[in-house]
Design brief:
The strands form 3 sheets. The protein has a 7-stranded mixed sheet with strand order 10-9-8-11-12-14-13, with helices on both faces. 27% of the residues lie in helices and 30% in strands. The chain starts with a strand and ends with a strand. By secondary structure, the protein is α/β, with parallel strands linked by helices. It is elongated and about 70 Å long. Strand 9, helix 6 and strand 10 form a beta-alpha-beta unit. The chain has 2 domains: 112 residues, Alpha-Beta Plaits (2-Layer Sandwich); 194 residues, Vaccinia Virus protein VP39 (Rossmann fold). The chain is built from 9 helices and 14 strands.
């Protein structure tokens, strides 16, 4: 599917008002390209590299963009309505700048891959690195663990604090030969890491069909498909066999719903690594884990995100 990009060259002052107009005219979201970000000091605690090009931003002012299907019969009407409403904004004393409107065709395949230029290798631990498949990389040491990733349309590039916390915990607690359940696997980054850290087998589960396809592709990309079974599944529903490790990088609200199931599928002494927990909900998750019969081993955090490591008594 192709799209029509509506781009408005306006001022930083008018960004919010222009965005609101686009939402009212049917946009499901907007993109704001403000050259201010070129001079921003980025917080990069996990080794991310941001490479922004000045060519992608206006010399002055701001681009506010929205997207509509290219074959939309209403596109001309939308543009005309937009012109009228932009003119009305000036009657409220708002400086809208040039307020020029440009319409460009965008191919969906190009749009879907444009973000890749911002995704670079990330060192998540002293010996583990996540590398985009399209990036060249020189090993830091002979025993470095490289996880090749192509996120596609699924969530999970490995840059989020919750993923970092899970990877660090897996490296610390997973023992060679352990079997693992990866609940809400996304792109299978945790499953791949588990195998490369010595797990004998991982069952990677996600309810999202897109995530399941992405996970399967990434296991093959990393040469570990034989040791990882990817399945569409709702949490631990229908899972009976006990394993040594369960890892779940999902929202606190979801973790609260299946801590009893985690206890059921863990072997005695087994480890549960739970992340995706905002700090404000950490105590709720901790209490649920304890109530289900597990004991807290460690709580670690990055910024406002928390991971809880527990064991089955």
């Amino acid at each position: 599917m192709n799209w029509s990009e509506i781009s408005i060259h306006t001022t930083a002052e008018a960004t919010e008002a222009v965005s609101s107009l686009l939402y009212e005219l049917g946009a499901n979201g907007v993109v704001i390209e403000d050259p201010e970000v070129l001079h921003r000091q980025w917080d990069t605690p996990f080794g991310e590299i941001y490479q922004l090009s000045p060519d992608d931003f206006p010399d002055e002012g701001v681009f506010v963009k929205a997207y509509l299907p290219a074959d939309s019969s209403e596109l001309i009407d939308v543009v005309e309505e937009l012109k009228e409403q932009l003119a009305e904004l000036t009657t409220f004393g708002l400086d809208i700048g040039k307020a020029t409107i440009a319409v460009n065709d965008v191919r969906e395949d190009e749009w879907a891959h444009a973000w890749k230029k911002y995704y670079k290798p990330i060192h998540v631990t002293d010996r583990m690195t996540i590398k985009p498949v399209w990036e060249a990389y020189e090993l830091r040491s002979e025993d470095e663990i490289i996880i090749e990733m192509d996120p596609g349309m699924a969530f999970g590039t490995g840059t989020h604090p919750t993923t970092i916390l899970c990877l660090q915990s897996l490296e610390k607690y997973l023992q060679p030969g352990d079997r693992v359940y990866d609940v809400g696997t996304g792109t299978a980054i945790l499953s791949i890491a588990a195998v490369k850290l010595g797990a004998s087998h991982v069952l990677a589960m996600d309810l999202d069909e897109v995530a399941v396809r992405s996970a399967q592709a990434n296991t093959e990309l990393n040469g570990v498909a034989e040791q990882i079974t990817v399945r569409q599944n709702n949490l631990l529903d229908g899972i009976e066999e006990q394993v040594e490790v369960v890892v779940a990088n999902i929202l606190a609200e979801v973790i609260l719903r299946f801590t009893d199931d985690v206890f059921r599928v863990l072997k005695p002494g087994g480890v549960f690594i739970a992340s995706g927990i905002i700090e404000a909900r950490a105590e709720d998750v901790k209490q649920a884990i304890v109530a289900s019969g597990m004991e807290i081993v460690e709580m670690i955090s990055i910024d406002d995100w928390v991971a809880i490591v527990s064991k089955k008594r």
